[in-house]
Amino acid sequence: MFTCAHSFRSHPNLGDEVNRNIVQSEIEGDVFLNDLPPATVLEIQTQHRCYRVVLLSDNNALNSGRHQDCPKPISVAIAGSTWEVPC
C-alpha cells in the first residue's frame, strides 16, 4: 500500500467544493479492493447514480445499478477511483 508523506493542499484551480471533497476523502480513508474478501458487497454512490458491486476476485466484480441502466448484474473490472491527486 502506498501513502503520501503529506496531506492534500487545496489547489487554486479547483473549486471549493472539489477541494473540500478531496480533504473529506482523506479524512474518511480509502477502500483497497485487494484487501477485501470475495463476495464483499459495496454500495457506491456517485453524484447521479447508486451502484451495487459484488467483488469476485482481483479487481473483477458484478455491478448492478439503476433499473434502466443496468437491470441485471454485469461483469466489470474496476481500475479504481479516488478524489486524491498524485503525490
* Sheet with most strands: strand arrangement: 1-2-3-4
Structural class: alpha+beta
What is the percent of helical residues?
10-25%
> Would you report the number of β strands?
4
Oligomer: single chain
| Helix count from the secondary structure assignment | 1
Poorly predicted segments: 1-5
User: Span between N and C termini?
Assistant: 14 Å
Mean pLDDT equals 76
Order of helices and strands: HEEEE
> What is the approximate shape?
globular
Radius of gyration over C-alpha positions, nearest whole angstrom = 15 Å
Q: What percentage of the residues does DSSP assign to strands (E)?
A: 25-35%
The profile of the biggest β sheet is: 4 strands, antiparallel
Report what the structure shows.
With 87 residues, the chain is of the alpha+beta class. It is globular. A hairpin with a 4-residue loop joins strand 1 and strand 2 (50-57). Helix content is 15%, strand content 25%. The chain has a domain at 31-77. Strands 1-2-3-4 form a four-stranded antiparallel sheet, with no helix packed on it. The longest helix has 13 residues, at 16-28. The chain has one helix at residues 16-28, and strands spanning 41-45, 50-57, 60-64, 74-77.
Please name the defining characteristics of this protein.
87 residues; single chain; disordered N terminus; four-stranded antiparallel β-sheet; globular; alpha+beta
Briefly summarize what is shown.
The protein is of the alpha+beta class and 87 residues long. The protein is built from one helix and four strands, in the order αββββ. The protein has a domain at 31-77.
